[in-house]
Amino acid sequence: MKRFHCVCGQEVFFEDKACSYCNNPLGFNPDTLKMVVLTRSTLRTCGLRDHAVGCNWLIAAGDSHKQCRSCRLTRTVPAQDIPINVRRWSVLESAKRRLVYSLIALGLPVVSRTQDLNYGLAFDFLEDQRTNPLVKKSLVYTGHHNGVITLHAVEADEAHRVTAREQLNERYRTVLGHLRHESGHYYWDKLIHNSAWYSRFRSLFGDEENYRQALDYYYACGPAPHWQKRHISAYASSHPWEDWAETWAHYLHIMDTLETATEFGLIQQDAVDASGFTLLMQEWRQLTLMMNALNRSMGQRDAYPFTLSRQVIVKLRFIHQLVIGSD
Ligand SMILES: [Zn+2]
Ligand SMILES: [Zn+2]
C-alpha cells in the first residue's frame, strides 16, 4: 500500500475520511490511487460515505454511479435490520477496498457484473442461517463461481475467525486473505484457463481433475503429508485450484506489504524497481523476519506465519511473470 499525506503534511491512512491534524475531509481517488482533500477536488463522494460502511472512495465527476468502484461490486449484503450485520458489512467493505486497490495497482482487469453479465466480478456477503431454527437450509460457503465471490459474513467477526482458525489448524485467517484467495479463482478463469499459460500452470500446480472428490478427501483425511515442501498452506494441498488460489493470495500479500515497506523506507525503491524476482524474495525474507521479531516484542503472534519452500517460490515466480510480465 502507498503512503498518504494530507495537504497539511500530516500522514494519513487509506481508511481515513478526515485529516487528524487539520480536519480537512479526505477521500481516496481509485483512478489515481491518491488521497485527496475534498474541498480541493471536483470528485464526488461514494453514496456509502455517510453510512455505517463509511466508504471514503471517490467517484469521477462525469460518472453517474451512486457508489464507488469498490462498493458497487457488492451485489448482496446480510440483512441490515440486524445490528451485527451492519458492522460486518463495514468490515467486509473495508477489506474489499484493500483488495480492489491491489488489483488496480497491479493493472489487473476489474470488470464488474454490470459490465459483463455472465463473468463479471460481484460479491455476495451472505449470512449463514444454520443457527436459525426457522430456516432449515441455506448454508453459506465462502467461494467463487463465474465471477461471483461469496463470503460468509460471519468471517467479519474476529471471535469466529480465531475459533475457525484453531479448529481447522490454520496459521492465518483474515477477511483480506479470504478475498485475495477468492480473487485467485476469478483470475484463474480470466488469465489461465484457455490461455497460453495453461500448460505451465498444469506442470507447476498439477492436473485439476475431480475437484469435489479432492476436497471431500481433504476434509475427511487432512492435508497431504509433507505439504510444506510443495505448498504455501495445508489447504493448498487439497487441489491444484486451491493451491493456485492460496499462492495467488500469498502473492498479493507479498506485493502489498513490499510496497508498504518501500514507502516507509525499509526497502530501497531500486530493489523493487529492478523487480528481479530472486532479489524481491531476498528482501521479502529479511522483511518478514523483522515483522515477526517486532510482533514478538509486542507479545503478538507472528505477523507472517509462513515459510516459503523452493517449489512455492517457483509458483510465486510464475504468478509474478503473469501479472508483471517479467521475472
Ligand atoms: Zn491535514
Ligand atoms: Zn464506496
From TrEMBL:
InterPro entries, per the entry: UCP012641, Zinc-ribbon_6_bact
Domain Zinc-ribbon: 4-80
UniProt-recorded name of the protein: Zinc-binding metallopeptidase
Species of the source: Thiothrix fructosivorans
